[in-house]
C-alpha cells in the first residue's frame, strides 16, 4: 500500500490495476474508472465518485445501459447491498457489452434527483 500524503478531502487520482473478479480480465486502471471494459462489472468502493470510502466492496453488476447525449451511461447494482450506481462508460469499454445491456428496464438512480429521463418504452 503506497502512503497517501494528499489531503483526503481532495480528489486523488489513483491508477489502480486490478483483475476483474467477474471475467478475470486484467484491467489497467486509468485513475478515473474502475470497471472492467470487457464485462462492465466493478466493485462497490465509492460513496461519492472517486472517494473509495465504501466499505461494502461488493461486486457491482451492470444491469442496464442508457445512451444519452453521445455517452453511454452504465447502471450498476451492488450484489451485496443493492446500491445503484451510474457510471459513464469509457472509450475502451466493449461496445458489445454496452449494446447487450441497452434497453433494459432499470431503475435509474438519476430518476430520484429530478434529472431528465430518456423516454421510456
Ligand atoms: Zn470483467
Ligand atoms: Zn454494496
UniProtKB/TrEMBL annotation:
Chain spans, region Disordered: 101-121
Superkingdom of source: Bacteria
Domain RNHCP: residue ranges: 16-98
Name this polypeptide is given: RNHCP domain-containing protein
Species this protein is from: Nonomuraea zeae
